[in-house]
Design brief:
This protein has 200 residues and is α/β, with parallel strands linked by helices. It contains eight helices and ten strands. Helices cover 32% and strands 22% of the residues. It is globular, with a radius of gyration of 16 Å. The termini are far apart.
């Protein structure tokens, strides 16, 4: 059985993440599984839990805009999008900063970023001291798990689970901001129209 923790036991989950562990957490959109981006071991564990192709890089969840700026290039337009829609059901694809280890992005020049969508997640990331790899709780290609019982069945090798609820039950909108023109890579709760209006 995978041990479950409530929001008052964040410290225990921080310890797991600092020691190369992988846990599941509720985000605003779907249940996610995460590991520290400072740990290649955690990344490999996520790949094996998800049964995911190694060539696919994981999205990253940051605690706030300052943490996003530490790992990605944020221009004026991107900063506007962040300030208008984050935290929220949106993922931004940005150019990565040079200092980000290449294993984090599989050598790619871009990184997909979300911002912590709850106080618990923000606290968890801040206490770990760096952003987290964050991917949906399911095997690659399968339906996203919608309860802790389902996650436990699909991902029995997790090191812990944070209890909690999700809001949208729909994956986030993914926007490619790495070029001049914004491109929606995945439709989600926020539309391109809303984004363009928000940065006018």
């Amino acid at each position: 059985m995978v041990k479950r923790y409530n929001e008052n036991e964040i410290e225990k989950l921080v310890e797991i993440l600092k020691n190369d562990g992988v846990i599941s957490v509720p985000t605003d959109t779907v249940f996610g599984i995460c590991g520290s981006i400072s740990s290649e071991k955690a990344k490999n564990k996520l790949i094996s839990i998800k049964k995911r192709p190694e060539s696919k890089s994981f999205p990253i969840m940051c605690s706030d805009i300052n943490q996003i700026k530490e790992i990605a290039v944020v221009n004026e337009k991107v900063e506007k999008i962040i300030n208008t829609f984050m935290p929220g059901p949106i993922t931004l694809v940005l150019k990565k900063k040079e200092n980000l280890p290449s294993f984090v992005t599989n050598g790619k020049e871009t990184v997909a970023i979300r911002m912590a969508t709850s106080k618990e997640l923000e606290q968890l990331i801040k206490k770990v001291g760096n952003p987290l790899f964050m991917t949906s709780a399911n095997e690659s290609g399968k339906k996203t798990c919608s309860s802790l019982d389902e996650i436990e069945k699909e991902c029995p090798d997790l090191d812990g689970m944070l209890e909690g609820k999700i809001i949208y039950d729909k994956s986030s909108t993914i926007v490619d901001c790495a070029n001049v023109k914004l491109i929606i890579l995945r439709e989600g709760p926020i539309t391109l129209k809303e984004i363009e209006k928000g940065i006018d």
